[in-house]
Specification:
This protein is α/β, with parallel strands linked by helices. The protein is 34% helix and 20% strand.
């Protein structure tokens, strides 16, 4: 019988009539919900769909279409008909009288492909408009991700699309509509009426907003796609709809009660397991590092026989130690680590840091051993850091994992998946003047994760700038929540490693094939204000710039970057670097250019932007400030950032005082207290002798001035600061 009005499928109900996709016994069952059932769902969320009807065979077609006006679209649905156009399961431009014959022909054609439709859907054909695709696919890290792009045949051919992570706020939806590559088409072209932007925003919210379809589908969602929707001046209509549900639950485990990580970063007593009385081990190195950090008491060694190791009191068990222990370092072989963890948990230790590697990263046997670690703390309040990590560095709490670490505490905090890079961050970062509040390496992260640490740091009063290095995370939703909370409040810089190993689980739809991990992370950055960088150098550059200028707020009329320095070629390279970073070099006003020329600048050089001045070994230290004074006077021009560049080689080719004249020039810039952030690029610093390099490093550490070796590093830092400026404005 004809099915002119199909029962509505509620998001929480089973997909009756859905066609399971083929799968192995070990694979999750996927249900392809028939298109007419999906469209019935869409109408519950206020989404317009074409008028239509369904029927089960060609003999029922005439009665089914009796109330429809042509032109009509005929589609078959059922197993194997996920991509209908690929197998001839779609016919356009039919009159009502044509449908029975078209259905019979389609039925025969599909049978030749061993495809038997469950039924047919016939709908009134839309007269046309701007065709877009809206899709949702489940990303392996962050869950549902929303895609908006050009639809129809242009979808994958042009891949003009953009992503956001669900759930969408109205601000997210508006940014997606205004920022996807096809956005200019919404404004109308060649006499066409502009499309209804507001209706498109509402459509996105109905699908993926906080109370939208995707929210209600919950963990059952695998893929959703409307390709195309048609946007006109009067609204939006979904012409095609695809929904795949899964029997696999994607829900993460119920979160444990929030942990206070204060004692992780400032323990009252520490025990180290794995230090030897006869040889140097990781445990011995930790004891030495802690003693160098000032631990003269409440530092213990866990040893079965010794009473002392390297001058540190030793005890056979944690219970035997004279004070309660907050933090245990486990540096024993991997097969012995589970017992140490279990004993520490039994003793009520707050945090156990497993330095040792040889667990899941080593294959099946290591994974089994890692499971033993986890079981050792099950049912207790003990949290495990690691395994396979270096642990915690926090000068204020005398937490450390390396000798010679700086002891001055700052307000930059970092969560790093890599222990080795953590050491680099401390060593190289301190030379750049970065002062850390907290840095924690989490390794395999079997218990304590990036997301919960970042979430805690958002509320930590000692942290004002957050850095993250990660290769993957099992708590993407927690991390996303933390990044959203940090937006406009604390700047976050993210360095990802191994990004090519990540990606979306589903690729059977256009949405899935276009939602790469790189695009997903860009979507996260766009919606949270987090800054993505591609190298450790850029990571440290951004952290140092934020450290220096966290309290700086550009004037309301501040616009772009002003570049100043010697050398036309170098200024061109600076401009190119700014362009790559998305920065604007706002030209100086005409009246300021005239004044600068009257002051003697610009003979044969530029006074536009970049502004060229003959700064070098023979110039007076005040030359930069003299040129900048009219620019930043009360009646001058306001910039967000100032990029000054020097050529270190010139101070040796044409001078005799080494790098000191350059430092003198920078002292005058600092003393001028210009109302702008300042980034300094010193090119060709490799020519400096070691003594001058140390002189410059000391200057940077003492002043905190943001000094970089190349234009791209500086431009990356400036772009990060301007991104945070924008977040502060939108979140205010």
């Amino acid at each position: 019988m004809p099915q002119n009005s199909s029962p509505v499928l509620h998001p929480s109900e089973p997909a009756d009539g859905a066609a399971p996709e083929p799968h192995s016994s070990a694979a999750p069952a996927h249900e392809q919900v028939p298109e007419h059932r999906v469209k019935a769902m869409l109408t519950q969320y206020g989404i317009d769909v074409p008028a239509g009807a369904t029927f089960s065979c060609a003999g029922e077609a005439a009665e089914a279409v009796s109330g429809l006006r042509g032109p009509l679209v005929l589609k078959a649905f059922g197993p194997g008909l996920l991509h209908k156009s690929d197998v001839g399961a779609v016919v356009l431009g039919l009159d009502a009288d044509d449908v029975p014959a078209a259905a019979a022909k389609m039925e025969t054609s599909l049978a030749g492909r061993d495809l038997v439709p469950t039924g047919y859907l016939v709908e009134q054909q839309h007269p046309g408009g701007l065709e877009l695709i809206v899709g949702v696919v489940r990303d392996s890290t962050f869950g549902p991700v929303v895609l908006l792009g050009l639809g129809g045949i242009a979808t994958e051919m042009l891949d003009l699309s953009a992503l956001r992570v669900a759930p969408l706020t109205r601000e997210d939806a508006e940014a997606l509509v205004d920022g996807f590559p096809g956005a200019p088409l919404l404004e109308g072209a060649r006499g066409r009426t502009p499309a209804d932007r507001g209706a498109l925003v509402d459509f996105l919210l109905a699908i993926a907003g906080e109370q939208g379809l995707i929210h209600d589908l919950g963990d059952r969602l695998e893929e959703f796609e409307c390709n195309p929707i048609v946007v006109t001046s009067t609204g939006v209509q979904a012409l095609d709809a695809r929904l795949i549900l899964t029997s696999t639950t994607h829900a993460q485990a119920e979160p444990a009660p929030a942990t206070d990580f204060s004692r992780l970063f400032a323990p009252r007593a520490i025990a180290v397991a794995g230090a030897s009385t006869s040889r140097s081990t990781f445990g011995n190195r930790f004891l030495a590092a802690y003693r160098a950090a000032g631990w003269s008491e409440r530092l213990y060694a866990l040893h079965p026989q010794a009473t002392e190791v390297d001058g540190v009191p030793a005890f056979p068990s944690i219970e035997a130690m004279p004070s309660a222990v907050d933090y245990v370092v486990v540096a024993v072989p991997a097969n012995a680590a589970p017992k140490v963890v279990a004993d520490a948990a039994t003793a009520g230790v707050g945090f156990v840091h497993v330095v040792t590697g040889g667990f899941a990263e080593m294959g099946e046997a290591g994974a089994a051993l890692q499971n033993e670690l986890t079981r050792g703390a099950d049912g207790t309040t003990t949290r495990i850091l690691g395994p396979n990590c270096l642990g915690v560095f926090a000068p204020g709490g005398r937490q450390t994992f390396t000798l010679g670490a700086p002891i001055e505490a700052g307000f930059v905090s970092v969560v790093s998946q890599s222990g080795g890079l953590s050491g680099d961050m401390i060593t190289v970062g301190s030379r750049r003047g970065i002062r850390f509040s907290k840095l924690v390496s989490i390794g395999n992260a079997i218990d304590v994760t990036q997301g919960e640490l970042v979430d805690w740091l958002v509320d930590d009063p000692e942290t004002r700038v957050i850095g993250i290095y990660l290769e993957g995370t099992r708590d993407g939703s927690t991390l996303l929540h933390a990044l959203r909370r940090a937006k406009g409040t604390k700047p976050v810089v993210v360095l990802r490693g191994g990004s090519s190993a990540q990606g979306s689980v589903a690729v059977s739809s256009h949405t899935g094939s276009m939602a790469s991990s790189t695009k997903v992370w860009s979507a996260v950055a766009e919606s949270t204000g987090a800054v993505q960088v591609g190298s450790l150098e850029d990571f440290l550059s951004c952290l140092s710039y934020f450290q220096q200028y966290i309290d700086h707020r550009p004037a309301a009329d501040a616009d772009g970057v002003l570049v100043i320095g010697l050398g036309g070629g170098a200024s061109v390279l600076a401009t190119d670097a700014c362009d790559r970073a998305g920065l604007r070099l706002s030209p100086l006003r005409d009246d300021l250019r005239r004044e600068l020329r009257e002051r003697g600048y610009g003979a044969g050089t530029s006074v536009a932007n970049p502004l060229e001045v003959p700064v070098g070994p023979a110039s007076p230290p005040s030359i930069l400030v003299d040129a900048l004074t009219p620019v930043f006077a009360s009646e001058g021009q306001s910039y967000q950032d100032l990029l000054i560049h020097f050529n270190a080689a010139a101070y040796y080719n044409y001078g005799t005082a080494g790098i000191q004249p350059l430092i003198d020039s920078l002292h005058t810039v600092i003393g001028a207290e210009l109302p702008v952030r300042v980034a300094v690029v010193i090119r060709n610093a490799d020519v400096c002798p070691p003594s001058d390099i140390e002189l410059m490093n000391s200057f940077v550490r003492e002043t905190g001035l943001a000094v970089y070796r190349g234009f791209d590093e500086a431009a990356s830092a400036v772009a990060a600061a301007q991104c945070f400026d924008a977040c502060r404005i939108t979140e205010a």
